TrEMBL record, chains A, B:
Organism: Parvularcula dongshanensis
PROSITE patterns, alphabetized: CNMP_BINDING_3, HTH_CRP_2
Cross-referenced SMART domains: cNMP (SM00100), HTH_CRP (SM00419)
Keyword line: DNA-binding, Transcription, Transcription regulation
Name recorded for this polypeptide: CRP-like cAMP-binding protein
Entry-linked InterPro entries: cNMP-bd_dom, cNMP-bd_dom_sf, Env_Response_Regulators, HTH_CRP, RmlC-like_jellyroll, WH-like_DNA-bd_sf, WH_DNA-bd_sf
Record bears the keyword Protease: no
The keyword Transcription belongs to this UniProt entry's keyword annotation: yes
Residues in HTH crp-type domain copies: 147-221
Gene3D superfamilies: Jelly Rolls, Winged helix-like DNA-binding domain superfamily/Winged helix DNA-binding domain
Annotated SUPFAM superfamilies: cAMP-binding domain-like, Winged helix' DNA-binding domain
GO cellular component: cytosol
UniProt domain Cyclic nucleotide-binding: residue ranges: 35-116
Length: 244, 244
DNA sequence: CGTGACATTGAACAAAGTCAAAAGTGGTGG
DNA sequence: CCACCACTTTTGACTTTGTTCAATGTCACG
């Protein structure tokens, strides 16, 4: 039994691979690692070593807030790939932990990049965009899973501000929020009534100001502290390593 | 101003593109579409037409439960790409709605695939795995955002069952659940105390059985009905269209 | 002005969290 | 084989957070 068996059976069931490609796959899944239950496999913030396949056992991908609240973003089962963001040179925005005795196989980074050799540089750019988006989804999971209503609202406002800023649509701690509170509520997993209350309260506390569709983050540092906001998951917009 | 300006400024700030690649990018972002606020841009379940860039305006990506509860999975702002799953031939597992007057540019499907011409078939397989994973993350967002504790637990058990089944690790409505309740709680955004209560209650209702680390989904249809479980987001494991 | 969509407020209610203690479980070594 | 340990699960009482329902405001626009 090869380390890539489980992955292979997933890919085959999706009709994505033939046997030749399967052999190629097995060829790049080189070093097999074994971990005990509880062991950390990839640390948040650590530079990417390579991508991994889960050969056997269960692992979790999780993100913790600074006060200890923890959100498992998803479970990784045999055949699952992770840290496919190697392509982009980004550090991991999450921690991977073995939940049971775990066997993984590492897919070599340069081998992986070789697969893209011959493709347009745009292909990697799109890959990067997809990785980017995944990071935003993960953060959304943590936001809605382990943050209070107040924290959620603050966190979303901060994220929107940062994302809009990159394309020149926000500055001076202010931006146009062209959507109603019930859309915010649907994004945050709250009722629109409660969103209204929280926004009013943030305004009364002097953290934000609202007029029409304009929002101003009056005290951005305080907002960030309030919800434990980190730009790690967005930073890559500005600091990603160049690709070969 | 070209339709890809916002995307370009994102990619450039990540040092991913030079001007030549930017021109190539502009070359494949052909047909520009305009939508009114509230209009549906991509319908859940519809076959992929191509990938899109948001040129101007805001959109949401959302998933609704059959009783109307709605979860916005993320907001799409100018420069964001979406429906990158074209590569995989999967239908959309979510609905894209314009939140404001919206301008998008379509990236032609065959042009997109051409970018991968010359890359190994494995490159597309990895892309497919990433898309797969994103779908699971989206479902996790809906689960934790708009489902009750009872529904969440049922939904997660069903997902794990389906995912394990693909690699032969579950059958007969039963599988080994080798993790503690506090891991489940961390994944579901609940307290472990509450998870314990819910599991006990599901067992008393005759929907599941537990012994050691074994879980049996005694009445899978009822569980699926209980939490509005759809395999759409997992199905691709078995029904994805073949790639060129 | 009047109208309709969106936002705010209050009061009653429900879901899930917290705290604390008791009951299993399984592994270890005597 | 049993006693002991650490850990996980269960249960009950109580608290907190956010929801629901319903009424009231506000504002842009015809």
């Amino acid at each position: 039994m090869s380390p890539t068996d489980a992955l292979f059976s997933r890919l085959v069931s999706g009709a994505l691979l033939d046997d030749a490609a399967g052999a190629a796959l097995a060829g790049i899944a080189t070093s097999v690692e074994r971990h005990e239950a509880g062991e950390v496999v990839v640390e948040r913030g650590a530079p990417a070593r390579g991508a991994f396949v889960v050969v056997d056992g269960w692992a979790s991908r999780s993100i913790s807030l600074s006060d200890g609240r923890r959100q498992i973003v998803n479970f990784m089962l045999p055949g699952d790939l992770f840290d496919l963001q190697v392509f982009t040179g980004r550090p991991a925005d999450h921690t991977v932990t073995a939940l049971t005795p775990l066997t993984t196989a590492q897919l070599d980074k340069t081998e992986m990049l070789n697969l893209f050799r011959g493709a347009s540089p745009l292909a990697l750019a799109f890959w990067w965009a997809a990785v980017q988006e995944e990071a935003i989804l993960r953060e959304q999971i943590v936001r809605n899973g382990r943050r209070s209503a107040r924290e959620r609202v603050a966190h979303l406002l901060l994220e929107l501000y940062e994302r809009l800023r990159v394309t020149g649509r926000a500055s001076d701690d202010a931006f146009v929020l062209p959507i109603g509170q019930s859309s915010l509520a649907d994004a945050l997993g709250l009722s629109y009534v409660h969103v209204s209350r929280v926004l009013s309260q943030l305004e009364r506390s002097g953290l934000i100001e609202r007029q029409r569709m304009q929002v101003r983050l009056v005290d951005r540092p305080a907002l960030q502290a309030l919800c434990d906001f980190s730009t790690l998951y967005l930073d890559a917009w500005e600091r990603t390593a160049k690709l070969g």
